[in-house]
Design brief:
Number of helices: 6
Number of strands: 15
Largest sheet: 8 strands, mixed
Distance between the termini: 11 Å
Structural class: alpha/beta
Shape: globular
Strand order of the largest sheet: 5-1-10-11-12-13-14-15
Bound molecules: adenosine-5'-diphosphate, magnesium ion
């Protein structure tokens, strides 16, 4: 017996951090220093309005997955008052994501080139500054959120939500009071996977759990009393962009539904696997593959 969608807990979630207009470039061969590689980019059509780009940035990727399973999601970050900034606002709005807290005062909207190798692995060439990753001041926000996800940055809210999930490394201002903190091994110093909790407590001293993901390899979640190792199910990787973001979204979806950390990590890994099997990082408005966390009947 599975619970119907209507009886699942749908939360009010604030996601703060980076927003960007990404330009994906599909390489015909693997990156090689000093080499020469043919490539293609997006066709000029559809959402892009004639410009070869797509919605990206960690906060947008997380919000797009969570809104697909029925959560009410606000994104707070910074864009510029320019064409790409408007494309980002439109891209969020057509997905049903609330944009009222976005600050459009950056000198220019962040844009990154994403080099995607035939293996599906991506390399990000970014130009944005740390100001672009940090959210505007949030102290005055009086909404009652069930959860704050900090992807890059985000200040303290007027009312502390019951759950704060954050990502390391941080950029710009951030609120160090997070409960669960996630990092990708390739963004962190060597050996982080051997000490996830100590690694994340360098920036988030009150964290109860530190989680280090490692692409197709095992992810490790550690608390003061537990250490879990989870092997992601193998999937055909088409575009690795946003895997860590969508892992965080799935993890949070499950934690909000009352899952154990082990079940939440498995659900996050499943969402990360869905993300790498799709082209793009911010789920399309009609993307149906993400499914909300459903308890095993025995766990209800
Ligand atoms: N090739 C893959 N096969 C299966 N799962 C994957 C793959 N790549 C990523 N994932 C899932 O997404 C999660 C986050 O991916 P990772 O690459 O570690 O994040 P980041 O985007 O920070 O590099 C992984 O822990 C895993 O669960
Ligand atoms: Mg990766």
């Amino acid at each position: 017996v599975t619970k119907s969608r209507e009886t699942l807990f749908m939360a009010k979630i604030l996601v703060t951090g980076s927003l960007g207009w990404d330009v994906p470039i599909w390489l015909e061969g693997a990156l090689r220093s000093g080499g020469r590689i043919r490539a293609r980019t997006l066709e000029a059509d559809g959402e892009t309005g004639g410009f070869p780009g797509r919605l990206g940035g960690g906060a947008a990727n997380i919000a797009a997955a969570l809104v697909r399973v029925g959560h009410e999601v606000w994104v707070c970050g910074r864009v510029g008052d320019d064409v790409n900034g408007r494309r980002i606002l439109d891209g969020l709005a057509i997905r049903g994501i609330q944009t009222e807290f976005i600050d459009a005062s950056l000198p220019s909207t962040p844009s990154a080139q994403i080099l995607i190798e035939p293996s599906g692995e991506r390399t990000i060439i970014g130009f944005s500054t740390s100001a672009a990753h940090s959210a505007p001041e949030l102290h005055a926000l009086s909404h009652d959120f069930d959860c704050h996800i900090q992807r890059g940055g985000g200040t303290r809210l007027g009312v502390r939500p019951p759950l704060i999930v954050a990502h390391v490394p941080t950029y710009g201002a951030y609120n160090s009071d997070a409960d669960v903190v996630v990092g990708g091994r390739s963004d962190l110093a060597a050996g982080a996977e051997n000490a996830p909790l100590a690694t994340v407590r360098q920036q988030f001293p009150h964290a109860n759990w530190g989680i280090i993901t490692n692409g197709a390899g095992s992810l490790i979640a550690q608390s003061d009393s537990h250490s879990l190792e989870i092997v992601p199910q193998s999937v055909a990787m088409l575009d690795a962009t946003g895997a860590g973001d969508v892992f965080m979204a799935g993890l949070t979806d499950a934690l909000l539904a009352g899952a154990t950390m082990e079940s939440a990590c498995r659900h996050g890994a499943m969402w990360g696997g869905i993300c790498v099997g799709l082209e793009g990082s911010a789920a399309a408005p009609d993307e149906a593959r993400y499914e909300a966390f459903i308890h095993e009947p025995s766990a209800i």
